[in-house]
């Protein structure tokens, strides 16, 4: 049975939670109060990076102050949107909302980045917050944004000017495992963002799974992260797992990384003990390409135990480039951990084993598209090399036929279904969709029920395609993104990789392949961004299109209806930077892309 938002807000019958993020914070404040809990390296005020930090006790006191204010101005279960810039204030705001028994909505402050304002309006309209939390410097901008978009929010709080409590003049509510902790809005790669309902039990389960999987250890580990804290991976890697494990986090702003990616590795180099970090696959190629040889002299990466890699397909050549570029700094392929996950499961579902590079396997491209994993040598003409996402972490995983809801044997491609204590309870105010996605029933080939994880109402349909070979999970794509032309399946990421290699004028990690209706059925289209090093006036669009068509035809047997070259940054992307193929398809069909040539 689907749990409604109202039932989520009722905690009278929920079972007791042994520990939540707020209570874990309070425990560490009592045990190691004078040790550093969180730091933020601010490159907006200093080229060298100005560091602001809090001890466990200081952070706990700040969270108390936020919680007390929230409790006075809202009712239990009300939503509180966190529109705070990346900083230690973000951490205090998010945890303060949770401690008050409210439902946090992690977002970001209004900014001019493409698509961010539209997404922010969509999310705020959907969750209808009672409170909005920000900082003093951004309060006017936030209030102006809300007024401009005709949104009425009763209370606005600048968390960085709240006075600390002189004494404990509030009583934190009892939190139960089934109580709703926050709404994690999906990145919207195939649709408008939906708020995944994450309970206190869900986030603690996945945070602990992450600590174990990434080899976190109290008194030894430090997390370094530039990932946005409003995003699922950034929130769990940068806030939840460090608090669950009792070790510190050093945070950066995503813009600081994008402007000078070497900063990421420089901060990692300053960490004592074992360092843990994570990023999307593109970041590894990006930092390798943008780091100068002289800058490598000061980098020390031999103490990194985990380079987590998730949120998009892992490209083998990107890993080779990264570890070759930083080998003399101590980076080794054994540190790499390919992670598969999604917001509906808090973030992590599976991860490759520690101590060895993620397994690579070549599969026959045609057979894979037809739903069968046929192993071939890597580099063979028809080979598609995939990187293993390892095994499930503290949860159950099956490959299912999405049409019949039956388990498929190893070696067959199907939808990835998961079940575990970390899986959310549904989408905010989308009961029918929640039941379909979060409470699916699964059967074996004889029609017998395949039981989900104990205590779970069913299986989570991830919408992702994968295959299990030799005990390892390999991700092959998303169901909705499949290109089906003349009855043949083509994985868009395979086509996009071919496109990127077809001509030097194509920007890396900036191509979208999709299908559109044609007179005689679906037809394939590619939209790609111009490489920045190629001036627009020197671009020969016909030459680029011909090279792309030839490469895609030769490697995939696929004729392209159109090849469109657009300006850098013009492709539609999600909040986490992934190419939004559905958005690109919509813009192509309505003719809103600006072309070159």
Notes on the structure:
- Keywords: Fatty acid metabolism, Ligase, Lipid metabolism.
- Belongs to the ATP-dependent AMP-binding enzyme family.
- It holds the Pfam family AMP-binding.
- There is one protein chain.
- The longest helix is centred in the first third of the chain and has 18 residues, at 56-73.
- The chain is of the alpha/beta class and 597 residues long.
- Helix 2 packs antiparallel against helix 3 (56-73) and helix 11 packs parallel to helix 12 (316-325).
- It is globular.
- The chain folds into 3 domains: 5-344, ANL, N-terminal domain (Rossmann fold, 3-Layer(aba) Sandwich); 349-481, Luciferase, Domain 3 (Luciferase, domain 3, Roll), CATH 2.30.38.10; 483-589, GMP Synthetase, Chain A, domain 3 (2-Layer Sandwich), CATH 3.30.300.
- The chain is built from 17 helices and 28 strands.
- The strands form 7 sheets. The chain has a 9-stranded mixed sheet with strand order 2-1-10-9-11-12-13-14-18, sandwiched between helices. A 5-stranded antiparallel sheet has the order 20-19-21-22-23.
Q: How far is the N terminus from the C terminus? A: 56 Å
Q: Structural class of the helix and strand makeup?
A: alpha/beta
Q: How would a textbook summarize the main sheet?
A: 9 strands, mixed
Number of helices: 17
Helix content: 25-40%
CATH topology (level 3) name of the largest domain:
Rossmann fold
Number of strands: 28
Summed over residues and divided by their number, the pLDDT gives a mean of 90
Poorly predicted regions are: 1-16
CATH class of the largest domain: Alpha Beta
Radius of gyration: 24 Å
Give the overall form. Answer: globular
Number of self-contained structural domains: 3
Name the CATH architecture of the largest domain: 3-Layer(aba) Sandwich
How is the largest sheet built, in terms of strand order? 2-1-10-9-11-12-13-14-18
CATH superfamily of the largest domain: ANL, N-terminal domain
Question: What fraction of residues sit in β-strands?
Answer: 15-25%
Keywords: Fatty acid metabolism, Ligase, Lipid metabolism
GO molecular function: ligase activity
Protein name: Fatty acyl-AMP ligase
Family: Belongs to the ATP-dependent AMP-binding enzyme family.
